From TrEMBL, chains A, B:
InterPro entries: AAA+_ATPase, ABC_osmolyte_uptake_ATP-bind, ABC_transporter-like_ATP-bd, ABC_transporter-like_CS, CBS_dom, CBS_dom_sf, Gly-betaine_transp_ATP-bd, P-loop_NTPase
Superkingdom in the source lineage: Bacteria
Family, as annotated: Belongs to the ABC transporter superfamily.
One family name in Pfam for this protein: ABC_tran
Positions of the CBS domain: 281-338, 342-397
Organism from which the protein derives: Serinibacter arcticus
The entry's keywords: Amino-acid transport, ATP-binding, CBS domain, Nucleotide-binding, Transport
GO BP: amino acid transport; glycine betaine transport; response to osmotic stress
The name this protein goes by in its record: L-proline glycine betaine ABC transport system permease protein ProV
Domain ABC transporter: 28-266
Any GO CC annotation of this UniProt entry: membrane
GO molecular function: ATP binding; ATP hydrolysis activity
Automatic annotation (TrEMBL), chains C, D:
Example of a GO biological process term: glycine betaine transport
Protein's cellular compartments: Cell membrane; Membrane
Residues in ABC transmembrane type-1 domain copies: 91-270
Swiss-Prot/TrEMBL keywords: Cell membrane, Membrane, Transmembrane, Transmembrane helix, Transport
SUPFAM superfamilies, per the entry: MetI-like
Domain of life: Bacteria
Residue spans crossing the bilayer: 20-39, 46-65, 95-118, 138-164, 217-237, 243-266
Protein name: L-proline glycine betaine ABC transport system permease protein ProW
PANTHER family: GLYCINE BETAINE/PROLINE BETAINE TRANSPORT SYSTEM PERMEASE PROTEIN PROW (PTHR47737), GLYCINE BETAINE_PROLINE BETAINE TRANSPORT SYSTEM PERMEASE PROTEIN PROW (PTHR47737:SF1)
Cited CDD domains: TM_PBP2
Gene3D superfamilies per record: MetI-like
MF terms in GO: amine transmembrane transporter activity; carnitine transmembrane transporter activity
Amino acid sequence: MTENHTEIRADGAYKVFGRRGAEAVRRLRSGSTRDEVKPLGTAAVIDASFEVRKGEIFVVMGLSGSGKSTLIRMLNGLWRPTAGSIHLGDDDLATVSPARLREIRRTKVSMVFQHFALLPHRTVLENAAYPLEIQGVPKEQRRERALEALRLVGLAGWEDSVPGALSGGMRQRVGLARALAADTDVLLMDEAFSALDPLIRREMQEQLLELQSSLGKTIVFITHDLNEAMFLGDRIAMMRDGRIVQIGTAEQILSEPADDYVAQFVADVDRTRVLTASSVMRPSRVVVSISGGPRLALRTMEENAASAAFVTDRNRVFHGTVTDTAVLDAQRRGDADLSAVVEPDTRQVHPDAPMSEIFAPAAESVLPVPVVDDGGRLVGVVPRVRLLEAMSQTTSLDATPSTEDSL
Amino acid sequence: MTENHTEIRADGAYKVFGRRGAEAVRRLRSGSTRDEVKPLGTAAVIDASFEVRKGEIFVVMGLSGSGKSTLIRMLNGLWRPTAGSIHLGDDDLATVSPARLREIRRTKVSMVFQHFALLPHRTVLENAAYPLEIQGVPKEQRRERALEALRLVGLAGWEDSVPGALSGGMRQRVGLARALAADTDVLLMDEAFSALDPLIRREMQEQLLELQSSLGKTIVFITHDLNEAMFLGDRIAMMRDGRIVQIGTAEQILSEPADDYVAQFVADVDRTRVLTASSVMRPSRVVVSISGGPRLALRTMEENAASAAFVTDRNRVFHGTVTDTAVLDAQRRGDADLSAVVEPDTRQVHPDAPMSEIFAPAAESVLPVPVVDDGGRLVGVVPRVRLLEAMSQTTSLDATPSTEDSL
Amino acid sequence: MNDPIIRIPVGSWAESAVDWLTSTFSGLFAFIKTVLGSAYEGLDQILTAPPFWVVVLVLAGLAWWVKSWKMALGTVIGLVLIQTMNQWDNAMHTLALVLIATVIALAIAVPVGILAARNDAVSRVIRPVLDLMQTLPALVYLVPMVLIFLTGAVPGLVATIIFAMAPGVRFTELGIRQVDREVVEAGEAFGASSGRILRQIQLPLATRTIMAGVNQVIMLALSMVVIAGFVGAAGLGSDVTRALSSINIGLGFEAGLAVVILAVYLDRVTSALGTRSAVAKAQTAAS
Amino acid sequence: MNDPIIRIPVGSWAESAVDWLTSTFSGLFAFIKTVLGSAYEGLDQILTAPPFWVVVLVLAGLAWWVKSWKMALGTVIGLVLIQTMNQWDNAMHTLALVLIATVIALAIAVPVGILAARNDAVSRVIRPVLDLMQTLPALVYLVPMVLIFLTGAVPGLVATIIFAMAPGVRFTELGIRQVDREVVEAGEAFGASSGRILRQIQLPLATRTIMAGVNQVIMLALSMVVIAGFVGAAGLGSDVTRALSSINIGLGFEAGLAVVILAVYLDRVTSALGTRSAVAKAQTAAS
Amino acid sequence: STDDAGSGSTSDGSGSASSEDETTVRIGIPSGWDEGIAVSHLWKAVLEDEGYTVETQTADIGILFTGLAGGDFDLMFDGWLPLTHASYWERYSEDLTDLGVWYDDAKLTIAVNEDSPAQSLEDLAAMADEYDNRLVGIEPGAGLTETTIDAVIPEYGLEGMDYITSSTPAMLAELSAKADSGENIAVTLWRPHWAYDAFPVRDLEDPAGTLGEAEEIHTFGAADVMERFPELSTWVEAFELSDEQLFELENMMFNDDAYADDLDGAAAAWLDANPDFVTDLKEAAQA
Ligand SMILES: Nc1ncnc2c1ncn2[C@@H]1O[C@H](COP(=O)(O)OP(=O)(O)OP(=O)(O)O)[C@@H](O)[C@H]1O
Ligand SMILES: Nc1ncnc2c1ncn2[C@@H]1O[C@H](COP(=O)(O)OP(=O)(O)OP(=O)(O)O)[C@@H](O)[C@H]1O
Ligand SMILES: [Mg+2]
Ligand SMILES: [Mg+2]
């Protein structure tokens, strides 16, 4: 990726709470551990370096207290790094003038706070309109956009309440509406959905993806919910004790965890939503060519001890399945090819389909589920046993193939 | 259940915020909706009636703003119901004397607050020891028990920090440790795990189950996490707009949702953790008696077109599996029974085993997974296709059996 | 007993300082005198010229507007009592003086308090100055002030402003410093300027504490009426002094009671203004 | 101008009330007089009997203990300055009076403030009473008080206590009312008695506001030195009055400066005590 | 140094309305000095009858001298010389006009209750116990106080007694309390004073003459009073009151309930009762 596609860049950023932060950084750099420098201060973020691309959703995960909030607060300059630098667009937040910093915050980056940080003396509407007020948006327009944001988060009708009269989740949504109303390119979201119920949460997640794809927002998102992280995150950064231990896509993190910590962290994830057909499929062994004729097809089936086969043409475009009995009939009839006996297979799935969508087709028939790409080509198959293996957490994903019959 | 096994009982409890609560209750009782009485006040809880048994984990779920926090706060008398009554043990919280209420709170019920409500001027240790201090526990013992509670929640080493220097999740854990240290029979937990990462959360959940089973604690638990609710809850109450719309076990809620709202609410649940072997198993058709002789066994297998069978004795105690070839051998040898050819089946699972634990055994062999109860009896089998059906959300759980081979 | 070993002539330095001040800044002082004097004269005219019941009705109306008809009724009763004690004119002189002193004291105190809240150095410097203003006996600077401003309302006003100002500063500072850090950060995070944060977040959230400070400013201003009377400011103070010299408890009590009635009225009005503030409203709604 | 239509003789009722009080409660008054008088005498002795440098060292030591050696140094400089202005004994008389008045005022004010914070009715009733105490000119009740206690330290003490008490009550109430509702609920939820909640939650969290009130109590007590001198209490007040009578700006300034030095010292000590409080520590740690 | 500010403001006044200068008289009334109050109000009544507009301002005596010297007033009727107000006279004589003596039998006294044992100051030292060992004084720094300290106490060996300086009201209050209870009391006092009528007190003899000869009460005017009020000045210069006239006037003003707090009413009533006073005065002025 080129420089001007990077929205946020952290270079060796440290944040140490306490009077003697600089000294702590020096020691950390020369190899001391977080615990060793504890007397000098709490090292909340240690040597964080990463880039977030424009239009990306970058998820940060990690144990409670691992430094996620501290990290995100450095990204809009609320907290200054003790060492290292943070770039937002072309601005180095450490050296930028206060006026420019304010401008950046007004126009470029907004934030959802972990503890909401609502203005208790203002109504819900006024809270949501606050960033617009600061941006100098005219009153009527401000009101409209704030109402729209409140509607998005499901708080229509509560405009005139004060935060003190709201439930926890409603307060969080006001914080969310406020950040959405600001309509900045970059959104920093610190456990923005943690107090939401699943229904609203699902809606919000989709909303966020929609925002990202239609408006190209760059989003840094802290969450503890693995499924949410996997669902939302283009890339996920795993933090531990102040350090970023792994950055990668959901599947990378899941299938190649950097260490035991990460592996354990993601153990509970709902794999059916994360793993896709392409990651569980196997090359199909029992493929016959539609133009190859019944005899050839039967031989292939016999060699693999299978009673059915997938049919493709010479471009590997998938045509459907044939059973041994049908092919035998064709052979008896003396058909030159299989086109008369091939049956279209409606169970076919896309390589990007999550596992959760493969269960139904898999249950319909004993045949493996064909995986077919955008070009209609058969790229692999998912035998039932693969699904079961992928679901069983004790079995690693690249376990040896089982003895089951598979095409 | 008899009266003296009920720990908490709510009878037609209402809570309306606002000056004209009584009037609002009157109207609600005579059929007005929540929105209609809005001008009189916010009806946060409407006509809530339920019982929580001793030693039960009672989970409350519902949309944000549906009245969960309000409900739980009425259970220890922090908020008084506008109408109706709340019983805690034998005490009616509405009429109990302030002194008795204090005693109840000291000895019987403790609470984890949604927004933590830590004492900002006290250290983590002092916060955790606070209930013990109130109970009049001697200092040394207090310290020990508080340290123990902090260790449980993974905050050992942070005793001397103040809440202001902790991350969000750490603060929540201090609130948790405080309630655990109080060591009361009843625990009220308002989104007690919402800010925790999955690792600590899993630990805490197990901790809670441990507490419940070993010490018989009664726990009322608010959560937004469906899996957590399903995992922890003996019973789950679903709230909507102030009303309790359904109370039932996880499986009841999942399989017989009272309305669309509930169904939608639980749509996202990770079924592998909720559904148990007993809920997906089927009666096994291919069961042969160990004492019945090879001939009988072969007949049974033929009738079902199966190449293997499960072997039980006359008490249905499970002995293992036999294959058709092995039985043929036995018949040839003239064995009187199957004991020589039966192979123990290591894949057997308990009826309460979550589905997630059935995937691995199911992947090992094409045979269905035998479900064996505590008495060693075969109570059913789980064919692979059942697993796949259960996982596919579009297919309802009592879909017609597929055409797959099954014993 | 404890005689000094060396005698530092602080006193005579002070005298020279006063002389120097008086001569150097005479223009400035003349200006202050004109401004304060005419402000007071104007307000005093407004309060004393109309028939007393007009003023009573206006003040009661104000009470009604900020709070309730009950408070308006209380106002009428209190003010009529002043009138029946024959203290009306004095009370109005005093009210004029207190109002002007309070407004000026607050106009200085609140900005200074804000500065002190935002800047630790300012806070450290200002604190002993406030101690000085509040505890240096007014009599000490009244004589120099008479040298500068002559007698009348102006030196009384200045002394009252000096004495009453301190709690305004202190409680503005305290109130702002007590505002939840995270809410201020929310303002920063959205790029609000510090002036905006001040106006829209810190001041509104500090209102209760600041209003308690304002209340103290008013109370202290009222407690200075006697001192103001000392330098010839008209008002209830002179009756109190007069009552004393003739051990006329009754008269002193009547004048004193008139002061208290004004105090209760002003206290109620300011505290009602305080509870009309956005925060207070929010808090009521939430309870 | 605005002559009263009917004349209500409030004044003479007050006089009768005073007469009645004086004769009815003479025993009580004698008791108060003895207690206050001997408390003052005792403390005064302690402060004036030893050589001045002993007292200076003790007070500087206190400053060191509550804050830092810098403050101790400042204390020494300030107190030695008082000594070199030949105001030592007066300053110690005043200090004794202010300390006793402050302690008693706080001993009454804090509980009353707590009551007012917990009970709206009490709050409503107490408020005008506080207005009265703070604004009824001391001279008005000093004369009756002299009738009861005769001249000397006691009426000065009583007047100081009355005048200085109000902010103690007000800011205790405000501080407690400002404590986050949820934290109090946490106390309730674990069955803490309201006394416990008060001691362990409300008071600690209200410390900063209460200490600001305490500071005001001290400042107001110090500002009463002149009035105390009026009824014969020894101290810096008499020099101020003397200076005024003889237009001796220098002397007045010296005595006034001594008051201010005491004020700054007491202010620093109390505010240092405030920041040593648990909350303040917690806040520092968190920042 | 006061000239700049003083004359500056005066010329401002005359410039704007020169015709009024002749008819508007500003009288400074000393608070706490009863004869001064009485005479000032008497003159107010007289001058208003003569068509003058009279503005009065009550202030502390020291303030009045300062103001008079600065041109803030035209007249002040209560200058005690040679002793009591010597310090003011020394300081401001250049800026004042002495308009002569209107009462020459004033004197400083030490007074005791009628039925007490001591007859002269010489007895007092020996009988100190009878008087509770207290000599109750007035303001520290007052001429009377200084004379007592500098002359009376050393001369008669009264060092053993507690000489309590407080204030005139406090002294009078204590006098009143002791008179009621029948206890013995010794106070510093002066003639003329209404206390002699109100309480059973008598002077102690002063064989050594430490309290000085009889004092004269002067009327002082501003520096330019003669030019601005040629006629009025001659009246004032001719003004005299006898013992009886003064006592009668003071009695009506301070001890007669009919004029409880209506000093102007009392003055008018006194003029009615003494119809010749004004004509005599004018005649004397012509002479
Ligand atoms: N103090 C209060 N004053 C007025 N209304 C309140 C107050 N607390 C809660 N409510 C209202 O009561 C309703 C229920 O609130 P409650 O806090 O019980 O919801 P909840 O189910 O806990 O939601 P969440 O999951 O968001 O915490 C909401 O509509 C809320 O606005
Ligand atoms: N204001 C502060 N003062 C001192 N230490 C702090 C402060 N804020 C955070 N810390 C410390 O920094 C570390 C990281 O905190 P941070 O809030 O970044 O964690 P987090 O990853 O956001 O955790 P959570 O998931 O619990 O919110 C913690 O050890 C915490 O104690
Ligand atoms: Mg965090
Ligand atoms: Mg809630």
